Every structure is written in C-alpha cells, then in structure tokens.
Amino acid sequence: MISSPLLQEKNTTPRSGWYLFLLPLFFWAIALFAISDALLFWIKGEAKYEQNILKEWLEEARVFRKSLPELIDNYRKLISRDSTKLGPPQDELKQMVLVRREEIDQHLRALGEPPTKIHPDILPLFPTFYEIEITIAEESDRPIRWASGLPFRPEQCQVLEYMIAENAKVKLYYQLHAYDRRRSIEQEKLSRGRWLFLVGAGLALAVTLQSLYSYFRERTRFIQAQKVNQAAAFAEKEMLAQQLVAKAAEKDSVELRSQMYAGVGIMAGSYAHNIKNLLVRPLDLLRRCIANKALDQQTSSMLGEVENTLGAVAVRLEQILNAVRR
User: Fold this and answer.
1) Is the pLDDT of residue 243 over 50?
2) Does 112 score more than 70 pLDDT?
3) DSSP H or E stretch at residue 132
4) Domain that holds residue 269
5) Is-contact 206 86, C-beta < 8 A?
6) Where are the alpha helices (DSSP H) in the chain?
7) For residue 106, is it within any domain?
8) Which of 71, 174, 215, 311 is the most buried (most CB within 10 A)?
9) Both 165 and 61 in a single domain?
10) Closest by CA position to 107, among listed 163, 145, 141, 50
11) In whole angstroms, what separates CA 279 from the centre of its chain?
12) Residue-level pLDDT at 237
C-alpha cells in the first residue's frame, strides 16, 4: 500500500512548543535546587553560624557538672513521678522538684550573666543575653525564666527558639552585635538579595530567550516541513491526474479497438454468409453433373474433387459464421 503525502498532511498537526519552555526550566530548577544550600548560607550563613554556636553553648555548657538538657531531663523525671504518685513521699518529692528547678534557674543565671567566662574562645564577639526561658510540656504554664533586667527593644533583639530536649523548648533573647553592626549586616543581606534577584532575573531572561529561540526555530522547521509536504502532495495530485488521464486514454483505445474488432467480425460474418450463399448453386450443379452417368470416370473423379473442395470451403465458412455469432 502506497502512503499518500496528502493523507500525511491531513494527519499532521503542529507539535506543541511547551516542552521547549519546560525542559530548560526543569534543568534550571535542578541546578537551583543543587545550589540552594550554598545560596542560603551566603544570605543567612553568618546568622545560622552564630545560632549554631549558641545552640552548642546552651547544650554543652556545664555549671553543676551537668548540661542544661540533662538538668531538664532529671526535672521532667521528677515531675512524672510526682504525677504518678510513685517513689518517695510527696513532701520529699516536692522538695526535690524545687531543688531541681532551682538548679535549672541557677544554671540559666550562670549562663546569662557572665557568658564570656564560660566559653571565651567560642562565643562570637561579646553577646548580651536579655532573657532565657525554658518551657516544659508538662508545666507549660510555669516556664523557668531568667531575665537580665536590661531594657531592650524588639528591633535590637534576636530570638533563638528550638527544642533543647524532649518536650522542652528553650527561648533565648540576645544580641550579638552592636546596633550599627547589625544594620550593616542587614544592608549586606539586602545587597546580597538584590544581587541574587538580578542574577535570577538574568537567568530567567536567558532561559526565556533561549526557550523563545528554540520555539521559533522549531516552529520554522515545522512550517518548512509543512510546505515540503504540501509540495509533495501537490506533485502527487498532478501525478495522479496524469495517471487518470493515461488510464482514460487507454480505456478509450481499448474500447475503440474492441469496436473495430466487432466491426471486422460483423464484416467477416457478412462476407462468409454471402460466399456461402454463392457456393450453394455451384455445389448443386456439381452434384447433378456427377449424378449424370454419361460422363466418363476421369471427369467424374475430377468433379468429385471439386465438390469436396467446395464442401470444405462451405464448412469453414459455417465455422466462421458460428464464431462471429457468439
């Protein structure tokens, strides 16, 4: 079966160019995801580094040979025993709870008042702690709080809040830099954000231009291919038209030839019929002559041969007539 370009042209539909936009965006998204940590560290790396130092300081600093998470765990265990009514008598248990609570309070005080004496080589610059608050899930209405008593404003204060132990959250109000230094850092963050925005806008513009270029290039290729298909379809139409004309001419030629053969057959039949009619009288005369006994034997033999020949001619003419009549 021969495939027709005309049918191919009917079944051809323009391919969507959306994939030309989505494919570069997909690769750019993967690249952006791969460098997202580096970008976040570049923007907020200093603040994150400082918070990690503070977390390590809160979790590892020891005043009473125990760290803050260990003191909180011991305190929670005593609270659980108090709620289940198990262990030592209630008065003694309450006294132990108060002692553990006082230990945590003293630990917070020791952390907040002279921070540079505990870890002088680890803490960044000279931090100022305004308030440290420990909230335990079992006693959410009775947080353990240490306050420095120093006045502070929210815009000059930083907050660190995270789960320091199981069901225990610490909230630290602090300031690591002077106000001017903090404003400088914020300006640097804004500048980095602008640079990132410009770089992102440039990349987005580049991706858009590349996608548009790819789309229009693909569109041009499709239009050219469509024109080629149309030209091929037109050429095939012309070829089919020529084939139809040739077939029509051949059909006319065959029909004319058949008519000619039919005419020749009719003419041959007519001639054969006329010749046969002409032979009727000579054959009759020959039979009469042969029947005459006055003729000698040689003459009778010759007339018999003539009769046989004319009879054979008559038989052949009869065959021709039968063939023509079919």
Assistant:
1) yes
2) yes
3) strand 128-136
4) 250-325
5) no
6) 5-11, 18-34, 36-60, 68-84, 90-112, 115-118, 179-291, 297-325
7) yes
8) 71
9) yes
10) 145
11) 95
12) 92
Polymer length in residues for the chain: 326
- Are residues 172 and 50 part of one domain? yes
258 and 172 together in one domain: no
Using CB atoms within 10 Å of the CB of residue 251, give its burial: 0 to 12 exposed, 13 to 18 middle, 19+ buried. Answer: exposed
Same structural domain for residues 131 and 262? no
CB-CB contact of 148 with 126 (8 Å): no
The Cα angle at residue 26 between residues 21 and 28, in degrees rounded to 5: 100
Average pLDDT, the chain: 75
Select from 120, 143, 177 the last residue of a domain: 177
- Considering the domain boundaries, does residue 4 fall inside one? no
* Sign of the CA dihedral running 20, 25, 31, 34: negative
pLDDT tens digit sequence for 138-152: 888 888 888 888 887
Domain boundary among 145, 177, 209: 177
| Residue indicated by tokens 């006045």 | 151
Q: How far apart are CA 193 and CA 42, in angstroms?
A: 10
Range ranked top by mean pLDDT from 78-92, 126-140, 172-186, 248-262: 248-262
- CA–CA dist 90, 133 (Å, integer): 27
Assigned token pair, 168: 């225990």
CB 171 within 8 A of CB 161: yes
Interval 5-10 mean pLDDT: 43
The token duo for 195 is 């640079």
State how far the Cα of 293 lies from the Cα of 300, in Å rounded to an integer.
Answer: 9
Contact 71, 107 (CB under 8 A): yes
Cα gap 236→230, rounded to integer Å:
10
Rounded to whole angstroms, the Cα distance separating 182 from 190 reads 12
What does the alpha-carbon distance between residue 222 and residue 217 come to, in Å, rounded to a whole number? 9
Specify whether 24 is located in the same domain as 171.
yes
Do the domain assignments include residue 231? no
Q: Give the pLDDT of residue 18.
A: 58
